[in-house]
Design a protein that fits this description.
single chain; four-stranded mixed beta sheet; 377 residues; alpha+beta; two-stranded antiparallel sheet
């Protein structure tokens, strides 16, 4: 797909800054991890910073990565202004430990004694999630690998043991397979009716905007139910997990047809920004079951639609179950779901990434599916 007119291209700025001049108000909501300053790594960073003999902190430390709307440098005042306008995608992406350690310990230093490297990226809003995941790989990989070592992913493995994609899921470091368990966890988070009750206006947008947090949720739920995993919502979800994966694939495969049927005179889903159309060569494949599909759709479209089907979930006899057949419901509502999603993308300036984060869309799609449960005789 072509770039929209006026769309910003990614740009990179590198700054070497006196630690005394670093503002204490850099947004931290974009950092996928909580900072633990008691670890051995954190203590080494602190020692490196406060070492009055070795004044090469900016060389020894990998620094701080920021995502921002814009960067302006004033040569006269020797001052850099960084604008953070969207808390969802602008702020500290990596280097949160370094930032907090600098703030807590710089009073021990003289001005001009230590410097820190700051890398600022602009124009990365459309792929911010991929950026955050890539730059925080070391911590995510460690957590993921440890969960696999502890056999905590057995809940998922047992639930999908008979599915054809069972061997295609990566659970640990350097396991090069086509499906990352983080994707499974993001999808499961969408259907956690304990975290997102049906009677509360709370929607699992984190599944789209922060997959690393979905791993945190899984770890937390496992620890909270350490003595009885049957109370774990991820265990309760096990009987419908295969259906959720099939539902994902069905949406992937049919969203284009749904949209094309939604307009009076021949829809053109392939012309929608963010959508790619298969024209030649190997066909596009669905994520889980590797079925052929004509269109490659952005997750910003797929995720809100899939998450809407949480409205069909209830707990019965200790497990999550469907109130009604989700596939029949998808056939009934697919046209409305697809057209509503693309309409929001257009109103957002043809921006699939902004679409995936739009609370009103998640709400409207959810209510569309919920309404079908109120019309059952």
């Amino acid at each position: 797909t072509s770039k929209n007119e006026g769309e910003k291209k990614p740009e990179m700025y590198e700054l070497i800054c006196d630690v005394k001049d670093i503002p204490d108000s850099i947004p931290m909501g974009t950092n996928p991890r909580e900072q633990k300053l008691t670890t051995s790594v954190a203590k080494k960073i602190q020692t490196s910073l406060t070492n009055h003999v070795n004044l090469n902190f900016y060389l020894l430390n990998r620094g701080i990565l920021l995502s921002a709307e814009s960067v302006v440098y004033d040569n006269v005042e020797n001052e850099c202004t960084i604008a953070f306008s969207d808390p969802e995608v602008h702020g500290n992406v990596d280097g949160g430990h370094t930032y907090k350690i600098v703030l807590q310990n710089r009073h021990l230093l003289e001005k001009g004694e230590q410097y820190v490297k700051i890398e600022v990226l602009t124009g990365v809003e459309d792929f911010f999630e991929d950026l955050a995941a890539a730059r925080n790989t070391s911590v995510q990989v460690q957590d993921k690998s440890m969960e696999e070592l502890r056999e905590h992913f057995d809940l998922i493995k047992n639930a999908i043991g008979n599915e054809i994609f069972y061997e295609d899921i990566s659970y640990k470091e350097n396991d090069a397979k086509r499906i990352d368990v983080l994707e499974i966890l993001a999808i499961m988070n969408m259907f956690n009716i304990e975290r997102y009750p049906l009677n509360v206006k709370s929607y699992p947008i984190t599944s789209y905007s922060g997959k690393a947090m979905c791993l945190e949720y899984y770890i937390r739920a496992y620890k909270e139910n350490e003595n009885d995993q049957t109370k774990n919502p991820y265990y309760k979800m096990s009987k419908i997990l295969p259906d959720i994966c099939k539902l994902y694939d069905t949406i992937e495969r049919n969203i284009g047809d749904y949209y094309n049927k939604s307009v009076a005179v021949g829809g053109k889903y392939g012309a929608v920004t963010g959508v790619a159309t298969h024209k030649s060569g190997p066909a596009f494949k669905t994520k889980f079951y590797q079925n052929d599909k004509q269109y490659l759709s952005p997750n910003g479209f797929i995720y809100p639609i899939l998450a809407a089907f949480r409205a069909l979930v209830e707990e019965n006899d200790g497990f999550y179950r469907w109130k009604k057949d989700p596939f029949i419901t998808l056939d009934e509502c697919g046209i409305d779901l697809a057209s509503s999603t693309v309409d929001v993308s257009r109103r957002k300036g043809n921006n699939p990434n902004a679409t995936g984060k739009e609370p009103m869309l998640w709400s409207n799609l959810f209510m569309c599916i919920l309404f079908t449960t109120l019309t059952i005789n």
